[in-house]
Amino acid sequence: MTKLLTIAGLGPGDQNMVTPCVQEAISSATDVVGYIPYVARIPPRDGLALHPSDNRVEIERAEFALDMAASGKRVLIVSSGDPGIFAMAAAVFEVLDKNPSRWTDVDIQILPGVTAMLAAAAKIGAPLGHDFCALNLSDNLKPWELIEKRLLLALEADFAMALYNPRSKSRPEGFEKVLTILKNKCSEDRSIVFARAISTPEERIKITTLALAKPEMADMQTIVIIGSSQTKVLSQNGKIFAYTPRHSKFDLSN
Amino acid sequence: MTKLLTIAGLGPGDQNMVTPCVQEAISSATDVVGYIPYVARIPPRDGLALHPSDNRVEIERAEFALDMAASGKRVLIVSSGDPGIFAMAAAVFEVLDKNPSRWTDVDIQILPGVTAMLAAAAKIGAPLGHDFCALNLSDNLKPWELIEKRLLLALEADFAMALYNPRSKSRPEGFEKVLTILKNKCSEDRSIVFARAISTPEERIKITTLALAKPEMADMQTIVIIGSSQTKVLSQNGKIFAYTPRHSKFDLSN
Predict the structure, then answer these.
(1) Range of B199's domain?
(2) How many CB pairs under 8 A join A and B?
(3) How many domains does chain A fold into?
(4) Which of A8, A130, A235, B253 could form a disulfide with A22 if both were Cys (CB 3.0 to 4.6 A apart)?
(5) Chain B residues within an 8 Å CB radius of A108
(6) A248 located within any domain
(7) Predicted TM-score of the model (pTM)
(8) Best residue in A108, A114, A254 to probe B by mutation, most B CBs within 10 Å?
(9) What is the CATH number of the domain that holds B52?
(10) Alpha-carbon distance B123 to B117, whole Å?
């Protein structure tokens, strides 16, 4: 029998953004593993065991899921958004890489999903319509100095930026530092978007400028999108949108 | 009556990766507009007019779609992947921005999709599992110098990179220059992935190293993913995967 571990992305929250492919994997799973709020999105049914676990236990969760898959169960790890973007897919490979002889006969399948920055960008226009980068602001797994270094280089490259996990309760100071750097380096009318819990009933969107941005506008459910120097804001039929044009001039002074 | 233009992402190619949300927009459209191969993915039916158009006419296509939406038709612009990533959403806002008084009563709705880099990353592991950037290598709309500048800064930041539109028939030399820069700046065992037509019958995947990478491994249907210095390759149950660990050290020599 094929032993299979599937790692799937549930999209940003709206059931209508779960791909049929992922829906099918949910329907055929015997066991669903994941962070508590993501597993809570899976409807209970007979023959399905739900295994929610807390944040910051990604390695243990991956080992647990691999063990179950090796025992012949049809195991599904669920992530919010896409499983390959700051989520569980990398954690599973870290575990496999450290234990090369432990789960040798388990197939790994990854099913992509709509990651938060795409859902946020779609709601507010097209802020990622030109070259961009995605930065995880959590310094649980990397030193803060590296985050600052990447932020400065991304500004120099004039990338639009999607910032994941911008501000947790345990380390609120990081995002404040990021905002200070941005305010020092960019013009004060640079666009910044706070997109919280996109496509859920708690959705909240704020399109503003760096001059008006405050640290407390972000939390862990927020994706922050920083426009490039070319990003523009416009009003269309009473609604505000932000977009980054597809064209760009070369300006060394950027 | 509400006048509405919807811009939707069809995902990478597999019908099972089209979100229900987008499927519903296809079902309720009277007119579908887009680049020829993307419109070809929409099944014909009574009451639906298909308007395929050629590449490089994004502005005209956006104007045409806005005019039809203004006339009361239910118009859907389709992009492959996600409409906000190097696709039609930005083109529509460019047109609106240039003509602020022309289509004032048309609502704009954007429906995200699984963009090519997410589908490619899922197929090969988790190469975008840490900070990364997305670069469009087409110099139709920006000078080549800007592409090189961004490439060098992205290497300095040690981002993984997803390269869109790497190599067209009309400008094959750009990607060759990119490979030369990468080979000069990175160790020769740096991971590089060529992911072509992911999730379609023509899918072709090659995980290799910079030392073995050749320009002709890419075409316009290929997403190229360059690993960061931390990206690793492993074999699992007979299959090769690439992943970028979630953790990273700070190394100024990067």
Answers:
(1) 117-243
(2) 262
(3) 2
(4) A8
(5) 125, 236-237, 239, 241
(6) no
(7) 0.96
(8) A114
(9) 3.40.1010.10
(10) 10
- Per residue of chain A (254 residues), what is the pLDDT tens digit? 789 999 999 999 999 999 999 999 999 999 999 999 999 999 999 999 999 999 889 999 999 999 999 999 999 999 999 999 999 999 999 999 999 999 999 999 999 999 999 999 999 999 999 999 999 998 888 899 999 999 999 999 999 999 999 998 888 899 999 999 999 999 999 999 999 999 999 999 999 999 999 999 999 899 999 999 999 999 999 999 999 999 876 654 44
Query: Is residue B164's pLDDT more than 60?
Result: yes
Give the end of a domain, one of B81, B98, B114. B114
Closest residue, chain B, to A81 (C-alpha): B114
Q: Which CATH number characterizes residue B237's domain?
A: 3.30.950.10
C-alpha to C-alpha distance for A138 and A171, rounded to whole angstroms: 8
| CA distance linking residue A11 with residue A197, whole number of Å | 11
In a domain, B248, yes or no: no
DSSP letters, A69-127, are: HHTT--EEEEESB-TTSSSHHHHHHHHHHH-TTTSTTEEEEEE----HHHHHHHHHEET
Q: Please identify, among A114, A131, A148, the residue that sits at the C-terminal boundary of a domain.
A: A114
Q: Are B248 and A136 in contact (CB under 8 A)?
A: no
Q: Is B110 on the interface with A (CB under 8 A)?
A: yes
Q: Are B238 and B127 contained in the same domain? A: yes
Task: Kindly state whether residues B71 and B127 are assigned to the same domain.
Answer: no
Task: Flag whether A251 is in a domain.
Answer: no
Nearest CA in chain B to A236: B104
Regarding whether B100 and B195 lie in a shared domain, the answer is no
Residue B128, chain A, CB below 8 Å: the answer is yes
Please answer yes or no on whether B246 and A100 come within 8 Å at the CB atom. Answer: no
Point out which residues pair with B154 in neighbouring strands: none
Contact flag A141-B241 (C-beta cutoff 8 Å)? no
Taking an 8 Å cut-off on Cβ atoms, the answer to whether A126 and B114 are in contact is no
